[in-house]
Specification:
There is one protein chain. The protein is of the alpha+beta class. It has one domain. It contains 3 helices and 9 strands; from the N terminus they run H-E-H-E-E-E-E-H-E-E-E-E. The radius of gyration is 23 Å and the shape is elongated. The termini are far apart. 18% of the residues are buried.
Length: 174
């Protein structure tokens, strides 16, 4: 007696294709929801006080970390962390675009990566002279990164004590 197993193989293939289609559908649905629930805003770094010997500081890599949507009081827990790094473009001014949630807003923090440890004090002085605040070393001393607060945006404090910038929802009026 010959047993035909082709119907079992067809069922297994059907299950596999069905789960693949479901996964692709969920990825596309989440991408569309992300685009629908957020709006892109520009963040501009403009340096008006640049001495001749500070021009090299403009050539460093400036970026912004999109931390999460919403404030701690609204969106609790670390499971909602985005921690997406976005590089600024341009020389002076430098511009980066982040996506801000239409209802929750977004936490972010600007930073600059530098090459040698002895540059931090020079970078701190340069940033503060140009209106940026709370310039600090990265907690990881092996990372040569200076974090700073942008003066054109609100600030918020995280539960673990970090101070971040906050972009209010686009429809919000202060």
């Amino acid at each position: 007696m010959i047993v035909d197993y082709s119907h079992i193989a067809a069922i297994i293939i059907g299950i596999f294709i069905g789960s693949l289609i479901r996964d692709v559908y969920n990825i596309i649905k989440n991408k569309l929801k992300y685009r629908k629930d957020t709006r892109e805003i520009p963040i501009k770094l403009e340096f008006k006080n640049v001495a001749g010997n500070e021009k090299e500081l403009l050539e460093l890599k400036y970026s912004v970390l999109l931390v999460k949507y919403g404030k701690e009081e609204v969106v609790k827990g670390t499971e909602k962390l985005l921690n997406k790094e976005i590089e600024f473009e341009g020389y002076n001014p430098k511009i980066a675009r982040i996506r801000v949630h239409k209802v929750l807003g977004a936490q972010f923090k600007c930073f600059v990566d530098y090459k040698s440890e002895n540059q931090f004090d020079k970078i701190k002085e340069f940033l503060e002279k140009n209106g940026f605040r709370e310039v600090t070393h990265d907690d990881d001393r092996h990372k040569k990164r200076a974090w700073f607060i942008h003066p054109d945006f609100s600030i918020c404090k995280t539960v673990d004590g970090y101070v971040n910038n906050f972009a209010h929802p686009p429809e919000y009026r202060r």
